[in-house]
Write a structure and sequence with these properties.
With 492 residues, the chain is of the alpha+beta class. It has eleven helices and 18 strands.
Length: 492
Protein backbone atom coordinates (compact mmCIF):
# COMPACT_ATOMS: atom_id res chain seq x y z
CA UNK A 1 0.00 0.00 0.00
CA UNK A 2 1.50 3.34 -1.01
CA UNK A 3 0.69 6.29 1.23
CA UNK A 4 2.06 9.57 -0.01
CA UNK A 5 2.26 12.88 1.85
CA UNK A 6 0.89 15.65 -0.32
CA UNK A 7 1.97 19.24 0.19
CA UNK A 8 0.29 21.95 -1.89
CA UNK A 9 2.23 25.20 -1.63
CA UNK A 10 1.21 28.69 -2.77
CA UNK A 11 3.83 31.40 -2.53
CA UNK A 12 2.58 34.85 -1.46
CA UNK A 13 3.06 36.74 1.76
CA UNK A 14 0.42 38.84 3.49
CA UNK A 15 -1.11 38.90 6.98
CA UNK A 16 -4.82 38.78 7.87
CA UNK A 17 -6.66 41.77 9.22
CA UNK A 18 -9.07 39.96 11.53
CA UNK A 19 -9.07 37.93 14.73
CA UNK A 20 -10.96 34.64 14.69
CA UNK A 21 -13.26 33.66 17.55
CA UNK A 22 -12.07 30.59 19.45
CA UNK A 23 -13.67 27.29 18.43
CA UNK A 24 -15.68 25.20 20.92
CA UNK A 25 -16.21 21.42 21.17
CA UNK A 26 -19.24 20.19 19.24
CA UNK A 27 -19.10 23.15 16.86
CA UNK A 28 -19.49 22.33 13.15
CA UNK A 29 -17.27 24.25 10.75
CA UNK A 30 -17.13 24.43 6.96
CA UNK A 31 -13.76 23.63 5.32
CA UNK A 32 -12.34 23.56 1.83
CA UNK A 33 -10.38 20.37 1.15
CA UNK A 34 -8.33 18.90 -1.71
CA UNK A 35 -10.70 16.99 -3.98
CA UNK A 36 -7.89 14.97 -5.56
CA UNK A 37 -7.10 13.39 -2.19
CA UNK A 38 -10.55 13.12 -0.65
CA UNK A 39 -11.96 9.61 -0.82
CA UNK A 40 -15.18 10.82 -2.46
CA UNK A 41 -13.61 13.57 -4.54
CA UNK A 42 -15.23 16.38 -2.52
CA UNK A 43 -13.74 19.86 -2.48
CA UNK A 44 -15.43 20.88 0.78
CA UNK A 45 -17.00 19.37 3.88
CA UNK A 46 -18.43 20.18 7.28
CA UNK A 47 -16.37 19.02 10.26
CA UNK A 48 -17.17 18.71 13.94
CA UNK A 49 -14.71 19.80 16.63
CA UNK A 50 -14.24 16.76 18.88
CA UNK A 51 -11.09 17.61 20.89
CA UNK A 52 -9.12 20.67 21.97
CA UNK A 53 -5.55 20.40 23.23
CA UNK A 54 -3.15 23.18 24.28
CA UNK A 55 -1.68 23.46 20.79
CA UNK A 56 -4.38 22.18 18.42
CA UNK A 57 -8.04 21.89 17.48
CA UNK A 58 -8.94 18.32 16.44
CA UNK A 59 -11.82 18.02 13.99
CA UNK A 60 -13.43 15.14 12.11
CA UNK A 61 -15.46 15.10 8.91
CA UNK A 62 -19.02 15.22 10.26
CA UNK A 63 -20.39 12.70 7.76
CA UNK A 64 -17.61 10.22 8.54
CA UNK A 65 -17.81 10.73 12.30
CA UNK A 66 -21.59 10.25 12.38
CA UNK A 67 -21.27 7.07 10.28
CA UNK A 68 -19.28 5.43 13.08
CA UNK A 69 -21.12 3.33 15.62
CA UNK A 70 -20.95 4.11 19.34
CA UNK A 71 -18.17 1.58 19.92
CA UNK A 72 -16.23 2.78 16.87
CA UNK A 73 -16.45 6.38 18.07
CA UNK A 74 -15.17 5.29 21.47
CA UNK A 75 -12.18 3.43 19.97
CA UNK A 76 -11.42 6.29 17.61
CA UNK A 77 -11.66 8.80 20.44
CA UNK A 78 -9.19 6.80 22.51
CA UNK A 79 -6.82 6.64 19.54
CA UNK A 80 -7.15 10.36 19.13
CA UNK A 81 -6.41 10.92 22.84
CA UNK A 82 -3.21 8.91 22.40
CA UNK A 83 -2.27 10.94 19.32
CA UNK A 84 -2.92 14.20 21.17
CA UNK A 85 -0.58 13.15 24.00
CA UNK A 86 2.07 12.22 21.42
CA UNK A 87 1.70 15.55 19.68
CA UNK A 88 1.77 17.65 22.84
CA UNK A 89 4.52 15.75 24.68
CA UNK A 90 6.86 14.72 21.85
CA UNK A 91 6.06 15.75 18.29
CA UNK A 92 5.55 19.46 18.89
CA UNK A 93 8.33 20.11 21.44
CA UNK A 94 11.00 17.99 19.72
CA UNK A 95 10.33 19.26 16.20
CA UNK A 96 10.07 22.93 17.18
CA UNK A 97 13.19 22.64 19.34
CA UNK A 98 15.02 21.20 16.31
CA UNK A 99 13.64 23.19 13.39
CA UNK A 100 11.93 26.21 14.94
CA UNK A 101 8.32 27.33 15.37
CA UNK A 102 5.40 27.25 13.01
CA UNK A 103 3.73 30.61 12.27
CA UNK A 104 2.08 31.47 15.56
CA UNK A 105 -0.38 32.94 16.35
CA UNK A 106 -0.65 32.79 12.57
CA UNK A 107 -3.17 34.06 10.08
CA UNK A 108 -6.10 33.39 12.43
CA UNK A 109 -4.37 35.02 15.42
CA UNK A 110 -4.84 31.75 17.30
CA UNK A 111 -1.90 29.88 18.81
CA UNK A 112 -3.58 26.53 18.13
CA UNK A 113 -3.25 24.83 14.75
CA UNK A 114 -6.19 23.02 13.14
CA UNK A 115 -6.01 19.28 12.45
CA UNK A 116 -8.80 17.91 10.28
CA UNK A 117 -9.41 14.17 9.87
CA UNK A 118 -11.34 12.99 6.84
CA UNK A 119 -11.47 9.92 4.54
CA UNK A 120 -8.76 9.99 1.88
CA UNK A 121 -7.69 7.83 -1.01
CA UNK A 122 -5.50 4.87 -0.10
CA UNK A 123 -2.25 6.41 -1.29
CA UNK A 124 -2.64 9.43 1.01
CA UNK A 125 -1.82 9.54 4.71
CA UNK A 126 -1.97 13.29 5.10
CA UNK A 127 -1.33 16.60 3.39
CA UNK A 128 -1.20 20.35 3.88
CA UNK A 129 -2.37 23.19 1.68
CA UNK A 130 -0.42 26.37 2.32
CA UNK A 131 -3.16 28.38 0.62
CA UNK A 132 -4.71 28.23 4.10
CA UNK A 133 -1.95 30.58 5.30
CA UNK A 134 -3.30 33.45 3.17
CA UNK A 135 -6.51 35.52 3.28
CA UNK A 136 -9.34 34.56 0.97
CA UNK A 137 -8.83 37.70 -1.06
CA UNK A 138 -5.57 36.15 -2.27
CA UNK A 139 -6.53 32.47 -2.14
CA UNK A 140 -10.32 31.95 -2.38
CA UNK A 141 -10.01 28.30 -1.23
CA UNK A 142 -8.15 29.33 1.95
CA UNK A 143 -9.52 28.24 5.31
CA UNK A 144 -7.41 31.01 6.89
CA UNK A 145 -5.83 28.69 9.45
CA UNK A 146 -2.57 26.84 10.10
CA UNK A 147 -3.92 23.43 9.03
CA UNK A 148 -2.98 19.79 8.71
CA UNK A 149 -5.22 17.17 7.08
CA UNK A 150 -4.96 13.52 8.20
CA UNK A 151 -6.49 10.38 6.72
CA UNK A 152 -9.21 8.76 8.81
CA UNK A 153 -8.23 5.27 7.66
CA UNK A 154 -5.02 5.43 9.74
CA UNK A 155 -6.38 7.11 12.87
CA UNK A 156 -6.33 3.80 14.76
CA UNK A 157 -2.83 2.79 13.59
CA UNK A 158 0.71 3.77 14.69
CA UNK A 159 1.26 5.32 11.24
CA UNK A 160 -0.90 8.33 12.11
CA UNK A 161 1.76 9.88 14.36
CA UNK A 162 4.31 9.57 11.53
CA UNK A 163 1.96 11.40 9.16
CA UNK A 164 1.23 14.12 11.71
CA UNK A 165 4.92 14.73 12.42
CA UNK A 166 5.74 14.86 8.70
CA UNK A 167 3.06 17.42 7.91
CA UNK A 168 3.85 19.53 10.97
CA UNK A 169 7.44 19.97 9.74
CA UNK A 170 6.00 21.45 6.54
CA UNK A 171 4.18 24.07 8.61
CA UNK A 172 7.43 24.87 10.41
CA UNK A 173 9.30 25.11 7.11
CA UNK A 174 6.73 27.56 5.76
CA UNK A 175 7.28 29.86 8.72
CA UNK A 176 11.08 29.59 8.76
CA UNK A 177 11.53 30.01 5.02
CA UNK A 178 8.50 31.77 3.48
CA UNK A 179 7.46 34.01 6.37
CA UNK A 180 10.78 34.84 8.02
CA UNK A 181 13.19 34.67 5.06
CA UNK A 182 10.79 35.39 2.19
CA UNK A 183 11.97 32.36 0.16
CA UNK A 184 10.45 28.96 -0.62
CA UNK A 185 12.44 25.85 0.19
CA UNK A 186 13.31 23.40 -2.59
CA UNK A 187 10.65 20.70 -2.45
CA UNK A 188 13.15 17.84 -2.11
CA UNK A 189 14.82 19.37 0.97
CA UNK A 190 11.45 20.35 2.43
CA UNK A 191 10.41 16.71 2.13
CA UNK A 192 13.80 15.50 3.43
CA UNK A 193 13.33 17.31 6.74
CA UNK A 194 9.71 16.24 7.02
CA UNK A 195 10.38 12.58 6.29
CA UNK A 196 13.36 12.45 8.66
CA UNK A 197 11.05 13.47 11.52
CA UNK A 198 10.05 9.82 11.94
CA UNK A 199 13.67 8.89 12.69
CA UNK A 200 14.25 12.00 14.80
CA UNK A 201 11.26 11.14 17.00
CA UNK A 202 12.39 7.53 17.45
CA UNK A 203 9.56 5.96 15.47
CA UNK A 204 12.05 4.05 13.29
CA UNK A 205 13.94 2.39 16.17
CA UNK A 206 11.80 -0.69 15.71
CA UNK A 207 12.59 -1.36 12.06
CA UNK A 208 9.86 -3.88 11.27
CA UNK A 209 6.86 -2.04 9.89
CA UNK A 210 8.54 1.36 10.28
CA UNK A 211 8.55 4.30 7.93
CA UNK A 212 12.26 3.65 7.37
CA UNK A 213 11.64 0.07 6.28
CA UNK A 214 9.09 1.30 3.77
CA UNK A 215 11.49 3.90 2.44
CA UNK A 216 14.22 1.29 1.96
CA UNK A 217 11.82 -0.73 -0.16
CA UNK A 218 10.83 2.37 -2.14
CA UNK A 219 14.48 3.18 -2.77
CA UNK A 220 15.37 -0.33 -3.89
CA UNK A 221 12.40 -0.27 -6.26
CA UNK A 222 13.59 2.99 -7.87
CA UNK A 223 17.22 3.47 -6.82
CA UNK A 224 18.08 5.66 -9.83
CA UNK A 225 15.34 8.17 -9.04
CA UNK A 226 16.60 11.77 -8.91
CA UNK A 227 17.05 13.28 -5.45
CA UNK A 228 16.11 16.77 -6.59
CA UNK A 229 13.35 16.23 -9.16
CA UNK A 230 10.10 15.91 -7.22
CA UNK A 231 7.08 14.11 -8.69
CA UNK A 232 5.39 12.94 -5.44
CA UNK A 233 6.22 9.29 -6.15
CA UNK A 234 7.19 6.59 -3.67
CA UNK A 235 10.62 6.54 -5.34
CA UNK A 236 11.06 10.25 -4.55
CA UNK A 237 10.45 9.59 -0.87
CA UNK A 238 12.74 6.55 -0.91
CA UNK A 239 15.79 8.33 -2.30
CA UNK A 240 15.32 11.49 -0.22
CA UNK A 241 15.00 9.46 2.98
CA UNK A 242 18.02 7.23 2.33
CA UNK A 243 20.15 10.24 1.39
CA UNK A 244 19.03 12.17 4.48
CA UNK A 245 19.80 9.20 6.75
CA UNK A 246 23.36 9.26 5.42
CA UNK A 247 23.64 13.05 5.62
CA UNK A 248 22.58 13.14 9.28
CA UNK A 249 24.69 10.08 10.17
CA UNK A 250 27.85 11.86 9.03
CA UNK A 251 27.11 15.57 9.55
CA UNK A 252 24.51 15.65 12.31
CA UNK A 253 20.88 16.75 12.40
CA UNK A 254 22.13 20.34 12.72
CA UNK A 255 22.81 20.28 8.96
CA UNK A 256 19.01 20.15 8.51
CA UNK A 257 18.17 22.37 11.46
CA UNK A 258 20.61 25.20 10.72
CA UNK A 259 19.96 25.30 6.98
CA UNK A 260 16.23 25.88 7.54
CA UNK A 261 17.09 29.23 9.15
CA UNK A 262 18.95 30.57 6.09
CA UNK A 263 17.71 32.73 3.23
CA UNK A 264 19.50 30.29 0.93
CA UNK A 265 17.59 27.15 -0.10
CA UNK A 266 18.29 23.57 -1.20
CA UNK A 267 21.87 22.57 -2.02
CA UNK A 268 23.16 26.12 -1.53
CA UNK A 269 21.85 26.21 2.04
CA UNK A 270 23.48 22.87 2.88
CA UNK A 271 26.80 24.03 1.43
CA UNK A 272 26.64 27.22 3.49
CA UNK A 273 26.14 25.26 6.72
CA UNK A 274 28.89 22.78 5.84
CA UNK A 275 31.32 25.69 5.49
CA UNK A 276 30.06 27.33 8.69
CA UNK A 277 30.52 24.10 10.65
CA UNK A 278 34.03 23.55 9.31
CA UNK A 279 33.46 20.48 7.14
CA UNK A 280 35.77 19.97 4.15
CA UNK A 281 33.19 18.23 1.98
CA UNK A 282 30.57 20.04 -0.06
CA UNK A 283 27.29 18.66 -1.39
CA UNK A 284 28.94 17.22 -4.52
CA UNK A 285 31.41 15.17 -2.49
CA UNK A 286 28.75 14.08 -0.02
CA UNK A 287 26.42 12.89 -2.77
CA UNK A 288 29.25 10.97 -4.44
CA UNK A 289 30.20 9.34 -1.14
CA UNK A 290 26.56 8.44 -0.51
CA UNK A 291 26.28 6.82 -3.95
CA UNK A 292 29.25 4.64 -3.00
CA UNK A 293 27.91 3.99 0.51
CA UNK A 294 24.58 2.55 -0.65
CA UNK A 295 26.54 0.06 -2.75
CA UNK A 296 29.28 -0.92 -0.28
CA UNK A 297 27.96 0.10 3.16
CA UNK A 298 31.35 -0.89 4.54
CA UNK A 299 33.01 1.26 7.21
CA UNK A 300 36.20 -0.79 6.89
CA UNK A 301 36.75 0.50 3.36
CA UNK A 302 36.12 4.06 4.61
CA UNK A 303 33.99 5.75 7.26
CA UNK A 304 32.46 7.77 4.42
CA UNK A 305 31.16 4.65 2.68
CA UNK A 306 28.73 3.34 5.29
CA UNK A 307 25.68 4.10 7.41
CA UNK A 308 25.93 4.39 11.18
CA UNK A 309 22.22 3.73 11.73
CA UNK A 310 22.07 0.15 13.03
CA UNK A 311 18.81 -0.49 11.18
CA UNK A 312 20.71 0.14 7.94
CA UNK A 313 23.89 -1.81 8.72
CA UNK A 314 22.88 -4.66 6.38
CA UNK A 315 21.39 -2.42 3.69
CA UNK A 316 23.08 -2.61 0.30
CA UNK A 317 22.00 -1.77 -3.19
CA UNK A 318 22.18 -4.46 -5.87
CA UNK A 319 23.75 -2.85 -8.96
CA UNK A 320 22.91 -3.54 -12.59
CA UNK A 321 25.20 -6.47 -13.44
CA UNK A 322 26.76 -6.85 -16.89
CA UNK A 323 28.15 -10.34 -17.61
CA UNK A 324 31.13 -10.65 -19.94
CA UNK A 325 31.81 -14.02 -21.64
CA UNK A 326 34.56 -16.11 -20.04
CA UNK A 327 35.88 -17.30 -23.42
CA UNK A 328 37.15 -15.11 -26.27
CA UNK A 329 37.01 -11.38 -26.82
CA UNK A 330 33.77 -9.48 -26.21
CA UNK A 331 32.30 -5.98 -26.38
CA UNK A 332 29.24 -4.53 -24.64
CA UNK A 333 28.06 -0.98 -25.26
CA UNK A 334 25.08 0.94 -23.88
CA UNK A 335 23.57 4.43 -24.16
CA UNK A 336 21.83 5.67 -21.00
CA UNK A 337 19.95 8.73 -19.81
CA UNK A 338 19.81 10.11 -16.29
CA UNK A 339 18.74 13.17 -14.30
CA UNK A 340 20.83 15.42 -12.07
CA UNK A 341 21.67 13.89 -8.69
CA UNK A 342 20.64 10.37 -9.62
CA UNK A 343 22.70 7.30 -8.85
CA UNK A 344 23.51 4.79 -11.62
CA UNK A 345 25.38 1.63 -10.70
CA UNK A 346 26.83 -0.60 -13.46
CA UNK A 347 28.91 -3.63 -12.43
CA UNK A 348 31.04 -5.73 -14.81
CA UNK A 349 31.92 -9.33 -13.98
CA UNK A 350 33.09 -12.36 -15.94
CA UNK A 351 35.47 -12.20 -18.86
CA UNK A 352 39.16 -13.01 -18.78
CA UNK A 353 42.14 -10.95 -19.83
CA UNK A 354 42.29 -7.20 -20.34
CA UNK A 355 39.14 -5.23 -19.49
CA UNK A 356 38.77 -1.85 -21.17
CA UNK A 357 35.95 0.49 -20.11
CA UNK A 358 35.24 3.59 -22.13
CA UNK A 359 32.87 6.21 -20.72
CA UNK A 360 31.65 9.22 -22.69
CA UNK A 361 29.28 12.06 -21.90
CA UNK A 362 26.97 13.00 -24.77
CA UNK A 363 26.90 16.80 -25.08
CA UNK A 364 28.32 19.31 -22.63
CA UNK A 365 26.78 17.97 -19.45
CA UNK A 366 28.82 17.59 -16.27
CA UNK A 367 29.38 14.13 -14.76
CA UNK A 368 31.35 12.59 -11.92
CA UNK A 369 32.16 8.88 -12.27
CA UNK A 370 33.40 7.12 -9.13
CA UNK A 371 34.35 3.50 -9.73
CA UNK A 372 35.08 0.53 -7.50
CA UNK A 373 37.46 -2.36 -8.18
CA UNK A 374 37.13 -5.68 -6.34
CA UNK A 375 40.05 -8.09 -6.55
CA UNK A 376 39.85 -11.88 -6.40
CA UNK A 377 40.37 -11.77 -2.62
CA UNK A 378 37.40 -9.46 -2.07
CA UNK A 379 39.50 -6.35 -1.40
CA UNK A 380 37.90 -3.10 -2.57
CA UNK A 381 39.42 0.11 -3.89
CA UNK A 382 37.56 3.32 -4.77
CA UNK A 383 38.72 5.69 -7.53
CA UNK A 384 37.37 8.52 -9.69
CA UNK A 385 37.40 8.39 -13.46
CA UNK A 386 39.08 11.46 -14.97
CA UNK A 387 37.17 12.79 -17.97
CA UNK A 388 38.94 14.83 -20.64
CA UNK A 389 37.63 18.04 -22.21
CA UNK A 390 35.44 15.94 -24.53
CA UNK A 391 33.81 14.19 -21.58
CA UNK A 392 35.59 10.90 -22.26
CA UNK A 393 37.46 8.64 -19.84
CA UNK A 394 38.92 5.13 -19.90
CA UNK A 395 39.70 2.40 -17.38
CA UNK A 396 41.99 -0.55 -18.21
CA UNK A 397 42.49 -3.59 -15.99
CA UNK A 398 44.86 -6.41 -16.86
CA UNK A 399 44.10 -9.98 -15.71
CA UNK A 400 40.40 -9.24 -15.24
CA UNK A 401 38.57 -12.40 -14.23
CA UNK A 402 41.78 -13.70 -12.60
CA UNK A 403 43.31 -10.97 -10.45
CA UNK A 404 40.18 -8.81 -10.43
CA UNK A 405 36.64 -10.07 -9.84
CA UNK A 406 34.51 -7.02 -10.67
CA UNK A 407 34.48 -3.36 -11.60
CA UNK A 408 31.56 -1.00 -10.88
CA UNK A 409 31.11 2.48 -12.34
CA UNK A 410 28.72 5.05 -10.82
CA UNK A 411 27.97 7.85 -13.34
CA UNK A 412 26.34 10.88 -11.67
CA UNK A 413 25.05 13.93 -13.57
CA UNK A 414 25.79 17.15 -11.65
CA UNK A 415 24.72 20.11 -13.74
CA UNK A 416 22.40 22.16 -11.52
CA UNK A 417 22.36 23.03 -7.83
CA UNK A 418 19.13 25.06 -7.86
CA UNK A 419 15.98 25.63 -9.91
CA UNK A 420 14.54 22.14 -9.56
CA UNK A 421 10.87 23.06 -9.91
CA UNK A 422 8.97 20.88 -12.38
CA UNK A 423 10.30 18.19 -14.69
CA UNK A 424 14.08 18.32 -15.03
CA UNK A 425 16.15 17.71 -18.20
CA UNK A 426 17.75 14.36 -18.94
CA UNK A 427 21.43 13.87 -19.75
CA UNK A 428 22.82 11.00 -21.77
CA UNK A 429 26.03 9.02 -21.43
CA UNK A 430 27.63 6.07 -23.17
CA UNK A 431 29.82 3.24 -21.94
CA UNK A 432 31.45 0.28 -23.60
CA UNK A 433 33.14 -2.70 -21.95
CA UNK A 434 35.58 -4.82 -23.94
CA UNK A 435 37.59 -7.86 -22.88
CA UNK A 436 40.65 -8.97 -24.82
CA UNK A 437 42.38 -12.29 -24.22
CA UNK A 438 46.15 -12.07 -23.80
CA UNK A 439 47.18 -14.49 -26.57
CA UNK A 440 50.85 -14.51 -25.54
CA UNK A 441 49.84 -15.61 -22.06
CA UNK A 442 47.65 -18.37 -23.51
CA UNK A 443 50.55 -19.69 -25.63
CA UNK A 444 52.87 -19.67 -22.63
CA UNK A 445 50.31 -21.41 -20.43
CA UNK A 446 49.54 -24.30 -22.82
CA UNK A 447 52.90 -26.09 -22.40
CA UNK A 448 52.67 -25.59 -18.66
CA UNK A 449 49.40 -27.45 -18.68
CA UNK A 450 51.02 -30.33 -20.58
CA UNK A 451 54.02 -30.44 -18.22
CA UNK A 452 52.03 -30.10 -15.03
CA UNK A 453 48.41 -31.15 -15.30
CA UNK A 454 47.92 -31.07 -11.54
CA UNK A 455 48.99 -27.43 -11.34
CA UNK A 456 46.70 -26.48 -14.22
CA UNK A 457 43.78 -28.33 -12.62
CA UNK A 458 44.44 -26.58 -9.30
CA UNK A 459 44.41 -23.21 -11.02
CA UNK A 460 41.10 -23.98 -12.71
CA UNK A 461 39.62 -25.12 -9.41
CA UNK A 462 40.65 -21.86 -7.79
CA UNK A 463 38.98 -19.92 -10.57
CA UNK A 464 35.81 -22.01 -10.24
CA UNK A 465 35.79 -21.41 -6.48
CA UNK A 466 36.10 -17.65 -7.00
CA UNK A 467 33.16 -17.72 -9.40
CA UNK A 468 31.09 -19.83 -7.00
CA UNK A 469 31.77 -17.37 -4.18
CA UNK A 470 30.67 -14.51 -6.40
CA UNK A 471 27.46 -16.39 -7.30
CA UNK A 472 26.78 -16.99 -3.60
CA UNK A 473 27.25 -13.28 -2.88
CA UNK A 474 24.83 -12.34 -5.65
CA UNK A 475 22.30 -14.91 -4.41
CA UNK A 476 22.49 -13.42 -0.92
CA UNK A 477 21.79 -9.98 -2.35
CA UNK A 478 18.88 -11.39 -4.36
CA UNK A 479 17.40 -13.07 -1.27
CA UNK A 480 17.74 -9.83 0.69
CA UNK A 481 15.98 -7.94 -2.07
CA UNK A 482 13.16 -10.50 -2.24
CA UNK A 483 12.69 -10.40 1.55
CA UNK A 484 12.49 -6.62 1.39
CA UNK A 485 9.86 -6.88 -1.34
CA UNK A 486 7.76 -9.17 0.89
CA UNK A 487 8.07 -6.94 3.97
CA UNK A 488 5.08 -4.71 4.84
CA UNK A 489 5.41 -1.20 3.43
CA UNK A 490 5.27 1.94 5.58
CA UNK A 491 5.17 4.40 2.68
CA UNK A 492 3.38 7.69 2.98
Amino acid sequence: MKRIFISVILITLFSPIFIKAQDIIGQEIFFNIESSYDFSGRDSLTAVLIKISPRAYWLADSAWWKSLGTEEQKITGESLDSLILEFEDDIYPILTRTFGLEWTPGIDKDTRITILIHPMKKESGGYINLANEYPKVQAPESNEREMIYLSSQYINTPDIKVFLAHEFVHLVTFNQKDKINNVSEDVWLNEARADFSSTLLGYDKKYEGSNLQGRVKDFLDRSSDSLTEWRETAGDYGVVNLFTQYLVDHYGVSILADSIKLRKTGIESLNAILVRQGFKEDFVQIFNNWAIAVLLNNCQVSEKYCYYNQNLKDFRLVPLVNYLPFVGDSVLSVNNTTKDWSGNWHRFIGGRGRLEIEFKVNGNSQFKVPYIIEDSQGNLSVNNLILDTNGTGRITLENFGIQYASLTIIPIAQNKISGFNGIQPSYSFFWSAATKTNQAQVIREEPKADMGKEKAIAELKNQITAIQLKIIELLKQLIQLLLTELAPSANM
